[in-house]
Amino acid sequence: MSIVILGVFAADCAFRGQRLPSMGETVLGEGFALGPGGKGSNQAVAASRAGGDVHFVTRLGRDIFADMARDVWGQAGVTPHVTEDADSYTGAAFIYVNADSGDNAIIVAPGAGGQLSPADIDAHAALIGGAAVFVTQLEQPMEAAHRALQLARDGGARTILNPAPAAEIPDAMLALCDVITPNESEAEILTGIAVASVDDAKRAADALLDRGVGAAIITLGENGALYRDRDTTLHVAAIRAGAVVETTGAGDAFNGGFAAALARGDSPADAVRFGNATAALSVTRAGAAASMPDGHEIVALLSRQG
């Protein structure tokens, strides 16, 4: 069963250090890495490595970062569906990683991916409409995501929106989402409810259900994830796979693993648990796409949990 993901590729320029500089200040870093990223691309890599048949729809420039994108998709088994844009550039991201905690702060310049339009989506209508599971985020223009969700829904796909970066989303678009997957801060921006506990997450999920989504998954970091639809509430505990190296890409790992599990027919509870395990493994490694685990690693971690 195919998974189609719409999103952006960005080359991640990751700097490790003790703190971000203030305006006008220069600080010495403790490390640097250049690697593949972008939320949609990361999710495609995660879903494919987790065992999914993944197709990725995006735009790229004609430059060295586009070559990087094609290489990483080829290695992960992702089938790309790319519109090339010679007048733009392939996306890039600045990532600051705190050397002590592994937490991160990110600036993304989507480049060609930021030019994705409803016309680009219509050019891939048959692919999107034929998906078993469709996933998108908000790094590309919202109009493109909205059109793709409509085509996927019309074709009978299970639709997943990862609302990142957080933005105001019209109710008509939320009504096309079988599942929405915000983290705590994204849930607060969408609902106005500060999420500091599982009970807060339940209230935020209810607010999203009231706006038309089929189910909400609020990812809670070390507190796992809350799944809530109109009939079921599940708090799925986090899984620990080892020491945290950095959290870049953890949300993308969750979404990719979750999509792969749904596509093969797992229940929501099992799919959330699979997503948690995918994310748990990813944070034990540096990088975004480079940190995504293989399916056998995820299954082995779950089997050790009992």
Automatic annotation (TrEMBL):
Which GO CC terms are listed, alphabetically? cytosol
Instruction: Quote the record's cofactor note.
Output: Requires a divalent cation, most likely magnesium in vivo, as an electrophilic catalyst to aid phosphoryl group transfer. It is the chelate of the metal and the nucleotide that is the actual substrate.
Please give a single GO biological process term from the UniProt record.
D-ribose catabolic process
Q: In which pathway does it act?
A: Carbohydrate metabolism; D-ribose degradation; D-ribose 5-phosphate from beta-D-ribopyranose: step 2/2
Alphabetized, the UniProt keywords read:
ATP-binding, Carbohydrate metabolism, Cytoplasm, Kinase, Magnesium, Metal-binding, Nucleotide-binding, Potassium, Transferase
Q: How is the enzymatic or functional activity of this protein modulated?
A: Activated by a monovalent cation that binds near, but not in, the active site. The most likely occupant of the site in vivo is potassium. Ion binding induces a conformational change that may alter substrate affinity.
What is an example of a Pfam family matching this protein? PfkB
- InterPro entries noted in UniProt: PfkB_dom, Ribo/fructo_kinase, Ribokinase, Ribokinase-like
Record-annotated active site: 252 (proton acceptor)
Q: Per the annotation, which location comes first and is thus the protein's main one?
A: cytoplasm
Note the superkingdom of the native organism: Bacteria
Q: Which cofactor does it need?
A: Mg(2+)
Please list the residues that bind substrate: 10-12, 38-42, 139, 252
Q: Which residues bind ATP?
A: 183, 219-224, 251-252, 276
Family under the similarity heading: Belongs to the carbohydrate kinase PfkB family. Ribokinase subfamily.
What this chain does, per the entry, is described as:
Catalyzes the phosphorylation of ribose at O-5 in a reaction requiring ATP and magnesium. The resulting D-ribose-5-phosphate can then be used either for sythesis of nucleotides, histidine, and tryptophan, or as a component of the pentose phosphate pathway.
Describe the subunit structure: Homodimer.
Protein name, as recorded? Ribokinase
Organism, scientific name: Palleronia pontilimi
Q: Which gene encodes it?
A: rbsK
